[in-house]
Amino acid sequence: MKPFSLLLLVVSPLFIVVNAWPNIRDAPSTTVDIQDGQTGTLMVLPPRQTDTGTKRVPDSDHPFVAPGPNDMRGPAMNTLANHGYISRNGITSFEEIIRGTGEAFNIDPLMASGMAALNLLTRGNPFVDKISIGGVSPLIPPLPGQIDGPETQGITKHGRVEGDASMTRSDVHIGDNRNFNQTLWDMDLEQLAKFGDDGPDGPATVFNLQTLIELKRQNLESDQVLDPEFAIPIRRLNAVFGTTKQATKRIISSFFMNQTFPENWFRAAAPVLGSSIPGEIAAALPQWVPGHNDANGVFVADPQPPAPFNISSGCANYWDTLVNAVPGTLADVTGIFKQNVDMLNGILFNASGCSEPIAPAGPTNI
Ligand SMILES: *[C@@H]1O[C@H](CO)[C@@H](O)[C@H](O)[C@H]1NC(C)=O
Ligand SMILES: *[C@@H]1O[C@H](CO)[C@@H](O)[C@H](O)[C@H]1NC(C)=O
Ligand SMILES: *[C@@H]1O[C@H](CO)[C@@H](O)[C@H](O)[C@H]1NC(C)=O
Ligand SMILES: *[C@@H]1O[C@H](CO)[C@@H](O)[C@H](O)[C@H]1NC(C)=O
């Protein structure tokens, strides 16, 4: 059967990682850095996987185990955690995200490191190199000195990366933004029934470009009306459009509803590094620019980023992320904390197309 990549499961909302990888850090730091009673962990880009072709996933080392009551789960990465491609407790790290998404989905480390960097900088503790794929966890301390408030949130927390107009989760101001919403999925499936291609599982079961355009249009239109505080800043709009190659109803349903790999599933045949689909969806929906509802529920466009950050959508996205979603207190950290923050920011900057980097400047404790 044809391998499908499933970026949307990790990209939008966004993601996490593996205790199946015994020693992820190949170059442990010799410098010990203790801040506020926490021991820093220097992040290291893991080496590329040597096997980069397709293969059956999961393998026998990664059986499905339903999460226990203390395991974190959230809007994304649940399948990876249920199979141990990231830690089954839902507390993961920079390296685990890269390894886990590479192993299970063949996501290229360049792309995975961008996703990991975004999540660690906005909702993790990048000093100890930990992030929760759900909510607040006793296993992750607040940032040293509590410079982003008394708790480290997880990726479920609304406002920085987690946002509106998801395909299967409600806006936080409408309902439950963490768990799968059958009503939303049924609405998506109506678009699939109208626009989908025929495939091995039957008529109108394959998500083609037109289906993705129509269901994103519907997600955006419906949430703009229902959610008084609807907001899609550029960093969120990019994530909403950030979907992937063709996939089928059977495959996507298995990930969304059962949070497991579909039967007989094979990962992508080559490392996955972005796709033209988000750009094609954006081009088909030109009325959906970055913006938010005003006090009267009228959708208004956000201001453009200042020059020189307005040169491209990628650069505008980087600007929005650093200025509005990465806590500004991260600009003043020291030691291993600073080395990690600088590396994560460098990853985002390198992918941005901007001509100059930006220091973190976002609000704290939100
Ligand atoms: C699911 O989505 C529908 C449609 O937006 C909404 O009316 C409902 O409140 C949502 N349910 C939950 C539990 O969030
Ligand atoms: C979910 O799992 C159940 C039990 O194994 C199965 O019957 C059902 O077909 C699965 N649903 C999807 C969408 O994969
Ligand atoms: C960026 O902003 C500057 C200053 O407002 C403006 O002159 C320039 O045309 C803008 N560039 C783009 C590509 O929009
Ligand atoms: C960013 O790109 C520069 C130039 O290619 C490279 O030297 C640097 O290591 C990259 N930074 C990160 C964090 O990947």
Question: How would you describe this protein?
Answer:
This protein has a single domain (7-352), classed as Chloroperoxidase-like (Chloroperoxidase, Orthogonal Bundle). β1 and β2 (38-39) form a beta hairpin. It is mostly helical and 366 residues long. It has helices spanning 7-11, 78-82, 94-105, 109-123, 182-195, 209-226, 234-241, 249-258, 277-284, 313-324, 335-352; strands at 34-35, 38-39, 91-92, 131-132, 197-199, 202-207, 231-232, 247-248, 291-293, 299-301. It is 34% helix and 7% strand. The chain binds 2-acetamido-2-deoxy-beta-D-glucopyranose (4 copies). The site of one 2-acetamido-2-deoxy-beta-D-glucopyranose (NAG) has 4 residues, from α8. Residues 60-283 form the Heme haloperoxidase family profile domain. Residues 53-62 have a biased composition (Basic and acidic residues). It comes from Mycena albidolilacea.
Features:
366 residues, mainly alpha, Chloroperoxidase, three-stranded antiparallel beta sheet, 10 strands, disordered N terminus, binds 2-acetamido-2-deoxy-beta-D-glucopyranose, iron
Strand order of the largest sheet: 5-6-8
Mean pLDDT: 91
Structural class: mainly alpha
Question: In total, how many beta strands?
Answer: 10
Q: What would CATH call the class?
A: Mainly Alpha
Bound molecules: 2-acetamido-2-deoxy-beta-D-glucopyranose
What CATH architecture label applies?
Orthogonal Bundle
Order of helices and strands: HEEHEHHEHEEHEHEHHEEHH
Q: Could you say which overall geometry the principal axes of the C-alpha atoms support? A: globular
Q: Share of helix among residues?
A: 25-40%
The number of helices is 11
Count up the domains: 1
CATH topology: Chloroperoxidase
> What is the H level of CATH, i.e. the homologous superfamily?
Chloroperoxidase-like
Strand content: 5-15%
Distance, first to last CA: 45 Å
Radius of gyration: 20 Å
Largest sheet: 3 strands, antiparallel
Stretches where pLDDT is under 50 for at least 5 consecutive residues are 1-26
Region (Disordered): 47-73
Family: Belongs to the chloroperoxidase family.
InterPro entries: Chloroperoxidase, Chloroperoxidase-like_sf
Protein name: Chloroperoxidase
